[in-house]
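Mods, move this if it's the wrong board.
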Amino acid sequence: MRSIRPSFTARRGRSARRGTSPLPVVALAAALALTATACESGDADAGGEATASAAAGGEGKITIPQDIKDKLKEHGIDLDKWKDGAWKQWDKDDWLREAKDYINPIIEGLWDPDRMREAEDPDRGVDESDLSGDQGVTDPTPQPVDAQAVSPRYHANAPEAGKVFFDSPEGTMVCSATVVQDPANPGKSNMVWTAGHCVHAGKSGGWYRNIAFVPSYNDAGKNAAQMKDVTKEEAAPYGVWWADWAQTSEQWIAQGGPTGGNGASYDFAVLHVKPEAGGNGKSLEETVGSALPVNFNAPAVPDVDSIKAMGYPAAPPFDGQKLYQCQDKPGRLSLAASDPTMYRIGCTMTGGSSGGGWVATGSDGKPALVSNTSIGPVDSGWLAGPRLGKEAKGIFDSVSDKFAGQ
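Not the wrong board. Structure tokens:
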């Protein structure tokens, strides 16, 4: 086996507000994450936990039923104040942490093109010397593979890919994500796969806020300068989809840290989303025209010929506006003998690509999601992602069952 002492950072987004001081107790710049998040739909009977979504009112406006407001108040949250900016308060004692506490009320218009464009990577990393030693099988560090730009329009070439935006104490953040199939709603999925650290700060924090998915972000592939004058339709051609439910591993809530390997082997999350303004009755899958199946029985690393990772890298030399991909034969990365071995590939994508889907061809000859970007060294060169096993399937099935038939 091979000892490794790289500088790790979770592949996430950078704060757009440089003047905002992060809470010292919350290290969220580059969490690797696995989190169990639970949020409830606008249907008061959809579940027994915190309701976070909004129902579409007349003339496309968003309204919140009174019973949902009452449930939010059980958490000490006044929805009107929340929408007026109370969500920016990140007091440690009030930061909702447990799975049942997750809430994400829709704030219509919050994610405008400027906010989306400015969400970047925190570019923080720590030398994780505790990753060395006898920790299972780790293959030699792969050679870097240059990330290749996906040809626009992205909807034609990677319709399942998109960005996850969210707010943290450090400001506006970004990750990558993938539309995945929902077995309970064939052809009509509203499920999105991403990294756990894109929704929860880990052991020293709680749920992030205003989590939303934008499929085919910047579909025309414009650069950062060109994106300054775009309309919302150009930035989000298939709309903004808010996470009315999210779930990830309990390992992340218990162990997740700002950088390094803690929880990385379980760094995955599933979102259930709904359109910001009520939509036209179509699901996310129907809207974008595609969704990937998830393979929870992906072959062992030596048996995988090739994996393709996709995402929107935001740290230099990338600007976070364009979609990229890397393809490589994976090796193994073991962070702890007790944790599952991760996939690792050569790739020069940087922060912001976190959560992006890893796709491999299955035994049926069709592509399937087998992992997502979790960690990589500060100076880039490779990425690692968790293998998806029973823990990931349990999370996936829970979200699917929650919205079965809806």
